[in-house]
């Protein structure tokens, strides 16, 4: 039985931040190589940990890395947290620093995580992990000779590369996508250009053109906590009940054009 964790991640010390929900598997939509075989992850972060739970942290790193890659691959096939995957996705993950190796195989069976699906979804994702500290070699002498080579680690790595992917026959891999499937297939040039530029802009997570409105200390004291400035105009987001982070695409500021480049601007007219 797979245990279910019912607590908020913040209880474990995780923090949260606001950003665009980027979910890219390492390539843009339309690439002919749509699925991955093996991903490699570093494990150097264990050097700075002082909690004595390196094995658990390494397993969590392998699980999260595998899930995030498969989840983004599933999104590129048209599946979302509302439209569950119709076939499982499998990947292999290797966490290593060159000497110590850990191997993971992850099977993604569901991505339904909205509303009550967290508790009522009968499907579960499964991950198989090797021993967390498989040592490839003991040391390397001054002459560059490897001492104590472990053949079992090499065998496990070769097994992963020998797992040849198979093409699924008679199965629609993108059942929820329309006829176009990709932005590049849109016939309307204006729509195609806008979609591609907007998508890549948000997926890049570049710094915002206009920063999030800041609540100053005096506003917190005199406007929020004690209501002592009724004469001031209500212009701040917290005064008008608007969340500045809850914006739609049509509410974002367009790109800034200098006056001399504006097609109908006063400085663009011929004198």
In short:
This protein has 2 domains: 175 residues, no CATH class; 55 residues, no CATH class. It has 5 helices and 7 strands.
Structure description:
By secondary structure, the chain is of the alpha+beta class. Helix content is 24%, strand content 11%. It is built from five helices and seven strands, in the order βαββαββββααα. The strands form two sheets. Strands 1, 2, 3, 4 and 5 form a five-stranded mixed sheet that branches.
Q: How are helices and strands ordered from N to C?
A: EHEEHEEEEHHH
Tally of distinct domains:
2
Write down how many β-strands occur, each being a DSSP E stretch of 2 or more residues.
Answer: 7
In whole angstroms, how far apart are the ends? Answer: 79 Å
Q: Pairing-aware structural class of the strands and helices? A: alpha+beta
GO molecular function: structural constituent of ribosome
Main location: mitochondrion
Pfam families: PDCD9
InterPro entries: Ribosomal_mL37/mL65, Ribosomal_mL65
């Amino acid at each position: 039985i797979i245990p279910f964790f019912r607590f908020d991640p913040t209880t474990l010390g995780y923090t949260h931040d606001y950003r665009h929900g980027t979910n890219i598997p390492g390539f843009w939509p339309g690439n002919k190589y749509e699925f991955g075989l093996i991903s490699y992850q570093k494990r150097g972060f264990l050097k700075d940990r002082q909690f004595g739970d390196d094995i658990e942290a390494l397993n969590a790193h392998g699980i999260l890395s595998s899930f995030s890659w498969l989840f983004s691959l599933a999104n590129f096939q048209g599946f979302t947290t509302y439209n569950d995957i119709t076939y499982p996705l499998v990947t292999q993950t290797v966490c290593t620093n060159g000497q110590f190796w850990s191997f993971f195989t992850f099977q993604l069976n569901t991505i339904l995580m909205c509303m009550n699906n967290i508790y009522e979804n009968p499907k579960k994702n499964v991950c198989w992990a090797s021993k967390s500290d498989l040592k490839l070699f003991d040391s390397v002498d001054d002459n560059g000779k490897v001492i104590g080579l472990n053949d079992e680690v090499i065998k496990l790595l070769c097994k992963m590369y020998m797992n040849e992917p198979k093409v699924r026959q008679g199965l629609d891999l993108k059942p929820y996508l329309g006829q176009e499937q990709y932005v590049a297939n849109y016939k309307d040039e204006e729509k195609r250009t806008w979609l591609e530029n907007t998508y890549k802009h948000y997926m890049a997570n570049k710094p915002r053109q206009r920063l999030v409105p800041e609540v100053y200390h005096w506003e917190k004291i005199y406007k929020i906590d004690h209501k002592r400035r009724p004469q001031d105009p209500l212009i701040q987001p917290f005064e008008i009940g608007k969340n500045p982070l809850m914006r739609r695409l049509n509410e974002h500021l367009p790109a800034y054009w200098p006056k001399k480049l504006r097609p109908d601007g006063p400085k663009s007219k011929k004198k």
